[in-house]
Write a structure and sequence with these properties.
The complex is a heterodimer of chains A (205) and B (233). With 205 residues, chain A is mainly α. Chain A has helices at residues 2-26, 30-38, 42-64, 67-83, 94-114, 140-150, 153-164, 169-176, 180-203. With 233 residues, chain B is mainly alpha-helical. Chain B is elongated and about 70 Å long. Classes of the chains: A mainly alpha (205), B mainly alpha (233).
């Protein structure tokens, strides 16, 4: 009985301390979480990861249009964040910082893929590219996904950052390395193109 | 700044953010929290001070060089006042270009700085020139030799300061590393040119433009090239 109480009370104390600390961390801003992570708190990383990873994954999915590549890039991005955490400038907005690292990683990966050697077919020619036939979408959300996929990269990225990831125009401009006016213009043109695509969808019987 | 309220596509069922697969998340968590220790990165203030200290150091070396070579007191004093005035500009460029008050200053403001500051500096050099000889005379003989040696020393001083700025802010800018690199080159170039300006007895216009001024542009271009490698995480 005595042994049980000796082991039990420290455990309760740990639970009390954790419950005291967790709400404050859980309510912290992403910037505060990043600072705690830099200071060596694993719990802060957990919370930051939970908060940031869905937005980051959504962004990477729409950049790569491939789940496996997006997940690879997610791992690369977080490993870069981990390595560069000492150079994080305290107080700087975290999400645009991490998104910019993700975007750089994607561009680097695409650049290296461009110089990758192609596999030739047995007769020595380049294999025919397979065009995927998509069925007509049943839901508006599916139609929207397809319409987003058909947008030029620059328009899609601007729309994904502002509409899906939830960044402000200024933050999206920082991530894209463009001016705010340019981002607004890309969003506007992307909207026009999306509208045309969706009108075609609504006319389809 | 946000998008206009009358967003025509606001009611669309935009895709929700998606979580990665659990095994991917577990791998990331494990990699990023394993043996996690506090990282003592330099504070913004320390980084700023380090850059300004480096710039002051090369200015002191330039002053020492001027005293050693018996440069006139008036020339030394003019050089030091110029260096002090431009130190304020360097500090302002560092503050605006590198520190995150609420994120860094906008890209367009920093780009404007990267263009305006060298133009102003070349204007300052033109203003401080006391004499003018035609380029054909400048490009031969002792004047050309002096221009070469002065330019090389300015380039070395500038490279020391620029390198220090790039290392002090290493890995801090994933957003616009090339632009930040150009600003680092600019700060270093001005530091180097001013340090040489304190010790150099020449006040001839071509000499100042080429040996002191072009170095600033050259280092800004080099910084632009190195920024991607050094400033991006």
């Amino acid at each position: 009985m005595t042994t049980y109480s000796v082991n039990f009370w420290p455990a309760l104390e740990v639970a009390r301390l954790t419950s005291e600390r967790s709400p404050s961390l859980a309510e912290s801003t992403s910037e505060r979480l990043m600072e705690s992570y830099v200071d060596g708190e694993a719990e802060a990383f957990e919370l930051l990861y939970r908060r940031v990873s869905p937005n980051l994954m959504g962004y990477l999915l729409r950049l790569t249009r491939n789940r496996e590549r997006a997940e690879d890039l997610l791992q690369i991005t977080f490993s870069k964040v981990h390595r560069a955490r000492s150079s994080y400038l305290r107080g700087a907005p975290v999400l645009p910082w991490i998104l910019a690292i993700a975007r750089r990683s994607f561009l680097d990966e695409r650049r290296s893929a461009n110089v990758r050697t192609e596999d030739l077919s047995p007769d020595g020619s380049l294999p025919e590219q397979q065009h995927e036939e998509r069925p007509l979408p049943a839901e508006v959300s599916d139609a929207l996904e397809i319409a987003l996929d058909r947008l030029p990269d620059t328009y899609r990225e601007a729309i994904v950052l502002t509409k899906i990831t939830g960044l402000s125009v200024a933050e999206a401009a920082q991530v894209l390395g463009a001016t705010e006016t340019a981002v607004k213009l890309r969003v506007h043109r992307g909207y026009n193109q999306l509208r045309k695509e969706l009108e075609q969808y609504s006319r389809t019987p | 700044m946000t998008l206009p309220k009358s967003d025509p596509l606001a009611d669309l069922p935009w895709p929700k953010p998606e979580a990665p697969r659990e095994e991917v998340s577990a791998a990331i968590r494990s990699a990023c929290t394993k043996n996690l220790c506090p990282m003592k990165g330099m504070s913004v203030g320390t980084r700023l001070s380090l850059c300004l200290a480096l710039s002051s150091f090369v200015a002191v070396v330039g002053y020492w060089f001027g005293v050693r070579h018996h440069r006139s007191e008036l020339g030394l004093r003019t050089g030091v006042y110029g260096a002090l005035g431009w130190a304020i500009v360097q500090a302002a460029v560092l503050f605006v270009g590198f520190t995150p008050a609420r994120g860094r200053a906008s890209r367009s403001l920093r780009l404007a700085l990267a263009i305006a500051v060298p133009v102003l500096f070349l204007g300052y050099l033109t203003y401080s020139a006391w004499s003018y000889v035609p380029f054909t005379q400048f490009s031969h003989g002792a004047r050309a030799d002096h221009a070469w040696s002065c330019g090389l020393v300015a380039l070395t001083f500038g490279a020391v300061v620029s390198g220090g700025v790039l290392l002090a802010w290493r890995g801090t800018d994933p957003l616009t590393p090339r632009l930040s690199g150009a600003l680092a080159g600019l700060i270093g170039g001005i530091g180097g040119a001013l340090a040489v300006g304190i010790g150099c007895p020449s006040h001839e216009a071509w000499h100042l433009w080429i040996s002191h001024g072009v170095i600033v542009l050259a280092l800004a271009v080099m910084g632009f090239g190195a920024g991607r490698r050094l400033l991006a995480p």
